[in-house]
């Protein structure tokens, strides 16, 4: 019984090792030649407490989880009922639990899944230093068709520093679980991969965002830890040092953004990473960077709001503050990654955009991408390197115009200390020299300049990812952004396989808006579905405000923390077609 993908969950209380086991399983799948996606969910404790690791394996690249899971392997049942809405189980699903911990919680049984028992604790107890999570891993490997040699290689890699005894104990528990799986009901297996080894990456969205800004040229980072963005900083701290960069943990978000403004003003490309509450604190200083025309990058790994909200869950609800949150007319750039892999591209592109246009650029990702780990094809190296127009020397007989009104809107930027290039730089409105001014003519010319450099820039085809699926006149389109792109793409594939035609437009450049480009992308389309994860339909309302949409355009939106499944989007497509 084989399928193109297999989905499973490992769950247990704090200390049960389900996140560690899930990580080992993910890496072993990569070594076996499969693609994989792993996300995790935890309770309100953030650290410790119950946890669940959701995994999907396939022979083709994966962009989202499926609509339900084939298997739930529970090390124990401690508070797992909290995850019942995040673990959709159906009649074909299988729950496997340890009988020593009693029956499965009723909350998990609404879909009437099959049930089976695996004595993980007892089996592990027969092995010196055996652990139930490794028994569970062995059973899972046998059930989904994962080769044992792949897990052997991963265990040796991760436990090598603990010595051969630790490796032997783990593999003994693994093999015991593998053998015990023969008594369990079947779930789908993945076919063995016969092709030769291909270069794959194991990476999270947060790690990819960090790599992207380094590749883009960032060499200074200041930030204050906040869930779910902290891993961006944890990855950057040692990685920046390898390229001669520096990371500073600031005392709060206000200090962090002001530090990167200072670093960038001094000539060093700079960034910070945060989440919604931190972005709120940074708004005033973002306006300063707009007025002073200082390039910075802010990566916002969105979580459920408002206020503290749900720190460990995902939502796409920071769009409004990212686009509209600055006071006054403050033209700036907002871009959004649409997958784990795209976090690399989009963050690197953001550095390029910020430096080229001397303006703040906000990168929107979210918890669903940031804290998910994927086995994916090795991304291509990009040519985007941040390059700013720097004033080299003073012109003899002239005063330096830091904010000279130019056709492009971009003025050569001085590095502090350069002879003859002294100027005033602050948040006050100013004339071309930087001298504070309250004159209407100066305000208008500088506002036009700051706007013009964004609207006239050539963003190329990167403003959106468009998947056509042979859609033509009279057909439909899905318009989406961010992490909603993954399930939308899978819905498109299912819709196309059933004979439907739909075009997918995943918008990467949120601001400035691109009405002309979207008009071309929607040519011939008569019906559209806007998909997003926000309670109020923020993206849909923004599209309605700035773009001409097909007459029949519907909004599919929901609040976090539950993401979309492909089936829900497919259902809406079928209704729209009818």
Quick summary of this structure?
The chain is α/β, with parallel strands linked by helices. Helices cover 35% and strands 19% of the residues. It contains 17 helices and 20 strands.
Written overview of the protein:
- The chain is of the alpha/beta class and 578 residues long.
- The protein folds into four domains: 5-183, Pyruvate-ferredoxin oxidoreductase, PFOR, domain III (Pyruvate-ferredoxin Oxidoreductase, domain 3), CATH 3.40.920; 209-377, 3-Layer(aba) Sandwich (Rossmann fold); 389-457, no CATH class; 460-577, Rossmann fold (3-Layer(aba) Sandwich).
- The chain has 17 helices and 20 strands.
- The strands form three sheets. It has an eight-stranded mixed β-sheet.
- α7 links the parallel β8 and β9.
- α3 (132-144) crosses α5 (164-180), α4 packs antiparallel against α5 (164-180) and α6 (205-216) packs parallel to α7.
- It is globular.
